[in-house]
Design goal:
The structure holds two protein chains of two kinds.
Chain A: H1 3-32, H2 37-62, H3 74-82, H4 88-110, H5 117-148, H6 150-186
Chain B: H1 2-14, H2 34-48, H3 63-77
Helix pairs in contact in B: 1-2, 1-3
The chains are: A mainly alpha, B mainly alpha.
């Protein structure tokens, strides 16, 4: 396998594993959530993440790549850096920050010129769902702001934003070579 | 009595036999991963009708500390 294919395979595997991890987490949270609109949206959210992992699995298969077993999903780093969220408001604050990071990363990936159409179409499908994820969570956080106060909710979001920035810097540092290689290999001559 | 009830519920949610849950044990040893710990804490809050916050858990490491925290929250939530 040439180096370009190996980098593509790695990043697609990373996305796949992160979607799987997200789906598993939201499945657990959806199971704990009392009945109501948040439970309904959480269930859809976890179903979407599960579907996204399927899209990446299918894309990898179409390109003839076997998924790589990735050691840690992006989300694992959040719990280390930002601490465990223990109630629904904190979970949604963390998810709000995380989903925005996901959209940014996918949008950034889409900008790579001459991107493989299989990857491009996969990201396009996923990003539409992620936009809804951010929307429903923003709405849910507004209802939590009525309970906890806007200040408290905003502080929690800022807390996870700070964690996210630290994680992302580390991610870029660790995988810069990989990401730069993909971008430069696909750049027009 | 309340502490024992809380510990029993912890055993139910973690699916670990009660006699294997030690007071001085680390709560993270009761679960496979952090996501399961979040799930367990959500279930405890729902079952006992209490609310925990991230800051409450900052000093909590052991089973006894978690059980005592939950007990304090239950007591605080009772009508005067």
């Amino acid at each position: 396998m040439d180096r370009m294919n190996e980098q593509e395979r790695w990043i697609m595997s990373f996305y796949r594993y992160s979607e799987i991890t997200g789906a598993m987490f939201f499945a657990k949270v959806a199971a704990c959530m009392p009945a109501g609109p948040i439970q309904v949206n959480l269930n859809k959210h976890f179903a979407d993440e599960s579907m996204h992992s399927w899209y990446w699995t299918k894309a990898l298969d179409e390109l003839g790549y076997k998924p790589i077993r990735v050691a840690n999903a992006y989300q694992d780093a959040y719990l280390d850096a930002g601490g465990l969220p223990v109630n629904m408001m904190e979970i949604l604050a963390l998810t709000n920050v995380f989903e925005k990071r996901v959209i940014k990363q996918y949008a950034h990936h889409m900008k790579i010129p001459n991107l493989n159409p299989v990857i491009k179409q996969t990201i396009e499908k996923i990003i539409e769902d992620e936009k809804w994820h951010v929307h429903w969570i923003n709405q849910a956080l507004k209802t939590f702001a009525q309970k906890y106060g806007e200040d408290k909710v905003n502080k929690k979001i800022q807390h996870y934003k700070a964690a996210d920035e630290a994680i992302y810097r580390k991610f870029i540092q660790e995988h810069k070579d990989r990401l730069d290689y993909i971008a430069s290999a696909l750049a027009p001559a | 009595m309340q502490l024992q009830t809380i510990k029993q519920q912890l055993a139910v949610f973690t699916k670990i036999p009660l006699d294997r849950i030690k007071d001085d044990g680390d709560i993270t040893d009761l679960v496979a991963d952090s996501f399961m710990l979040v799930e367990t804490l959500l279930l405890m809050q729902d079952h006992f009708s209490i609310e925990l916050e991230q800051e409450d858990l900052e000093e909590v490491v052991t089973v006894a500390q978690l059980v005592n925290l939950v007990s304090r929250k239950i007591t605080a939530a009772q009508p005067a």
